[in-house]
Design a protein that fits this description.
This protein has about 170 residues and is of the alpha+beta class. It is about 35% helix and about 35% strand. Helix 1 packs across helix 3.
């Protein structure tokens, strides 16, 4: 049985492990390998602890927990610069992708977005991340034409924005 609940301080290490392994699995061949190789669970957990302890955070972090109590997925929702809701991140333990965890997290994100008054949810996906793009498109998200470029180790990487009206 899978449950989705609010993230706690005790979940930080597990979330960082999911995020780092998720980046390394999903973005291999898309982002520069030296950038991915430098990512560590320890550094991510340090940054996440500092951020998670910030008073007045506008975002909500959710974790998916399996029947044994293990954290198997993580999502983060908050306000976008446009006033809509924005899905900042959604990661599932790479070995469990395709098992419904991402869908459960996304449904919980949508419920939280509605509860916070967001009738629209935006998200950004790396243009070359075909797996994530298919996932969001199956969930009803549509690319809206907005594009942005970030630099990773001096390599420009393009993202496309998706939107879903709830």
């Amino acid at each position: 049985m899978l449950t989705v609940r609010a993230m706690t301080d005790a979940d930080i290490e597990a979330v960082s492990r999911i995020r780092v392994t998720g980046w390394k699995a999903a973005y291999s061949g898309i982002l520069p390998q030296p950038y991915l190789d430098r990512m560590t669970v320890e550094a991510d957990a340090r940054a996440r602890r500092q951020y998670f302890g910030t008073a007045g955070r506008a975002s909500v972090d959710l974790v998916a927990v399996d029947a044994q109590g293990g954290v198997v997925g993580w999502a983060c929702l908050g306000p976008s610069r446009t006033g809509a809701g924005e899905l900042y991140a959604l990661y599932v333990r790479p070995s469990l992708i395709g098992s419904g965890i991402g869908r459960a997290l996304l449904e919980a994100v949508h419920a939280h977005a509605l509860a916070r008054g967001f009738g629209l949810v935006l998200l950004w996906v790396l243009t070359d991340n075909a797996t994530a793009r298919r996932f969001y498109e199956r969930a009803g998200y549509v690319a809206d034409g907005a594009v942005q470029t970030d630099s990773y180790d001096g390599v420009p990487v393009t993202e496309v924005r998706y939107r879903l009206t709830l």
